[in-house]
Write a structure and sequence with these properties.
113 residues; alpha+beta; Alpha-Beta Plaits; 2 domains; two-stranded antiparallel ribbon; 4 helices; 5 strands; rod-shaped
Length: 113
């Protein structure tokens, strides 16, 4: 007589594949699993990071999530825009949901930039 029992492969490669699917991996995020630690790296929106932390606890083989190298993409995009555009002090830049917002007084040359 044969008896079937459930089996779940917990090799790092399969845990990574499962994590990619479960977390709906953000396009800028890289992940790696090592000894039960899911390491998320790069940039993502803050709400995605929060959801990923919650969902990661439901992935078999993941004991802990490392976020040391995962940053909110908003401040990153804002810093890039400020470097590239170099707006005058009268112009304020803000990033909300990956959309660059400008406010303040500017001349036509600044507006064109």
């Amino acid at each position: 007589m044969m008896r079937w029992t459930p089996y779940q492969d917990l090799t790092p490669l399969l845990i990574e594949k499962h994590a990619q699917l479960r977390l709906a991996l953000y396009f800028t995020v890289q992940l790696q699993i090592q000894e039960g630690v899911l390491d998320l790296r790069c940039y993502a929106q803050a709400h995605w990071i929060t959801q990923a932390i919650d969902k990661a606890s439901t992935i078999a083989g993941v004991n802990r999530v490392a976020l040391n190298n995962l940053r909110d993409i908003g401040p990153f995009l804002l810093a890039q825009a400020q470097r590239q555009l170099a707006p005058p002090l009268s112009v304020t830049l803000n990033v909300h949901d990956k959309i660059l917002q400008m406010s303040g007084m500017r001349d036509s040359a600044t507006f064109q930039a």
